[in-house]
Amino acid sequence: MDLSAINPVLLIASLMVAATPLLLAAIGELVVEKSGVLNLGVEGMMIVGAIAGFATAVESGSPLLGFVAAAFAGAALSVLFAILTQFAQANQVASGLSLTLFGLGLSALMGQSYVGIKPPRMGDIHIPVLSDLPVIGPILFGHDIILYFGIALTAAVWWMLKYSRMGLVLRAVGENHDAAHALGYKVLRIRLMAILFGGACAGLGGAYISLIRVPQWTEGMTAGIGWIALALVVFASWKPWRALLGAYLFGGVTVVQLNLQAAGVAIPVEYLAMSPYLITILVLVILSADKSSAPASLGRNFHASR
Questions:
Q1: What span, in angstroms and rounded, lies between the C-alpha atoms of 64 and 75?
Q2: Separation between Cα atoms, residue 106 and residue 103, nearest integer Å
Q3: Comparing 288 with 208, which gets the higher pLDDT?
Q4: Which positions ≥6 away from 152 have C-beta within 8 Å?
Q5: What is the DSSP string of 22-65?
Q6: Is residue 224 within 8 Å of residue 281, measured between CB atoms?
Q7: Which end of the chain is more exposed for a tag (fewer CB within 10 A), N or C?
Q8: Is 268 helix (H, G, I), strand (E, B) or coil?
Q9: 185-196 burial, b for 16+ CB within 10 Å, e for fewer?
Q10: Do residues 141 and 120 lie in contact, with contact meaning Cβ atoms separated by under 8 Å?
Q11: 203 and 43 in contact (C-beta within 8 Å)?
C-alpha cells in the first residue's frame, strides 16, 4: 500500500471532472421535479446522450458538436416520457423505468460499431496567469468548458427559481397544478418545457462521460450515475447549490475509491466500488424524514379536463 502515490492536487481536479455528469443530470432533474414531474428515466437519457454525443464527435471530428447532439438526443427521448405521462396520463414511475430500459437497449444497438474507437479530444481552457498558479491553477482553472458550463448552469437555475417570474410559475405548477391552471397558467406546456430541459441536461451529462471523463464507448458505461443523480436531487432538498455540493461529494467518493484501489489499500475492490452507492443510500435514509422541500404535486399527473 503506497498512499504517497496519490497526488492531492490531481485528486481534487479529478473530483471536479467526476462530479460534472452528476451535476448536469441532477440540475436537469431538479427543474423537472420542481414542475411536479418525477422522471426516473435519467439513466436512459444519459446513456443515449453518451452514444449520440460520442458518435457525432467521432463522425464530425468536433466534441462540441457531439455535446449539442447529446442534448438533442436526451431531449428527444424525454419527449417520449412527456407523451406517455402528460398526454396519455400513464404512471410516471412506470414510464420513467421503461424509458431507462429503452435507453439502455437503444444505446447498445447504436454503439455496436463504436467500441474501441477513441473520440476527438476537447481541449482544456487556459486562462492566462490564473491557470499557471501553483495548486489553485490546476484545480480551478485547467478544465474543459463543459465543466464550467455545469457550474454556470447551477447558478442560472438557482437565480431562475428564486428571483424570476418563470421560476415562480414553475414552482406554482409543482406545488398545486390545479390552482396554477385556475390562474391561467399552461400547466402542460410548462411541464413539457421542464421535461425537455431535464432530458437535454441528462444527455449532456452522458456525453461528458463518453467524451471527457472516460473517452471511449462502452455499453452501459453510465453505470448507475443517472440513479445517483436522482438521489442527489433528494439529498439537495431540491436546492441547486446543495446539488452542486452533493455532486462534488459523490464525485469525490468515486475518485477516492479509484485512487485507493490504485494505491493497493487492503480493502476488497468490491467494497471500494460499492462505496459511492452505499453513501447515496445512507444519505437518503438520513434525509428521508425531511419531505417538506418536495413539491406537493410531485409525481401526480395533471388532468386538463378538471
A1: 17
A2: 5
A3: 208
A4: none
A5: HHHHHHHHHHHHHTT-----HHHHHHHHHHHHHHHHHHHS-HHH
A6: no
A7: C
A8: coil
A9: bebbebbbbbbb
A10: no
A11: no
* Residue 260 Cα distances to 35, 222, 278, angstroms: 40, 21, 17
Contact indicator for 202, 28 with CB cutoff of 8 Å:
yes
Q: CA angle, corner 68, sides to 277 and 99, nearest 5?
A: 45
- Cell reading at 23: 451535476
Q: Are the CB atoms for 32 and 190 separated by under 8 Å?
A: no
Q: Exposed (0-12), middle (13-18) or buried (19+): which is 112, by Cβ within 10 Å?
A: exposed
Q: Are 37 and 177 a contacting pair, CB within 8 Å?
A: no
pTM of the model: 0.91
User: pLDDT, tens digit, for every residue of 233-277?
Assistant: 988 889 999 899 888 888 888 888 777 776 667 677 677 777 777
Alpha carbons 49 and 81: distance in angstroms, whole number: 15
159-173: per-residue pLDDT in tens? 999 999 999 999 999
The sign of the CA dihedral 20, 229, 164, 197 is: positive
Q: Which positions ≥6 away from 147 have C-beta within 8 Å?
A: 16, 17, 20
Distances (CA, A) of 263 to 6, 13, 19, 260, 273: 7, 18, 22, 5, 14
